[in-house]
Amino acid sequence: RAGGGFDRGRAPGRAASQPRAGLRAGKVALPDPPRSLEPGDVRAFREAVVRRHMESENEHDFDTTLETFSHPRYELIATGQVHDGEAAVREYFRASRSSFPDQRNELISLRHADDAVIVELWLLGTHQGRLGALEPTGRTFRTRMMAFFIFDDEGIVCERVYFNPGDILRQISV
Fold first, then answer.
1. CB burial string 121-137: b at 16+ within 10 A, e below
2. What strands lie across the sheet with 104-113, from one edge to the other?
3. Burial of 32 by CB count in 10 Å (0-12 exposed, 13-18 middle, 19+ buried)?
4. Using one digit for the tens of pLDDT, what is the confidence trace for 124-137?
5. pLDDT single digits (tens) 80-111
6. What gap in Å lies between CA 83 and CA 75, rounded to an integer?
7. pTM of the model
8. Please, what's the b/e burial string for 87-108 (b: 16 or more CB within 10 A of its CB; e: otherwise)?
9. Of 146, 148, 143, 137, which is closest to residue 166 (Cα–Cα)?
């Protein structure tokens, strides 16, 4: 979107009365947004969405990851990169997993804010594909990160990620 702001509205193509798409057999379905405004209901909904989001990223089930958003958007604060909209987010998934095909996360802690879930996590992976000018080294990395999952009434509108890219580069460089 022009101007850098994000749209807190509903995802294109999904009306208010339209249920979330069902997931494949064996998967835990995403909950519908809470009908009540009780804080416990909202927190439980958001936590379930974030946990499913992180799990689906680990499984590289990006269709499910995208279902957790009402508007797909990643902001990588350390690099200044913004991936806004479904096409841009799919390209981010493709590019990041080309360099680190086994990229995964491990939850450290999860906290709630008024309009967000704040997650501390480990990000891990093996450098098996080109990363900019850096040829694959086969070395692994593990870095501590923080992600803010910003919500509207329907789902995630932005995953804002804070990390130290130098920590990753130091670990994968020869």
1. bebbbbbbeebeeeeee
2. 81-84, 73-76, 156-162, 140-151, 116-126, 104-113
3. exposed
4. 999 999 998 999 99
5. 999 999 999 999 999 999 999 999 999 999 99
6. 6
7. 0.80
8. eebbebbeebbebbeebebeee
9. 143
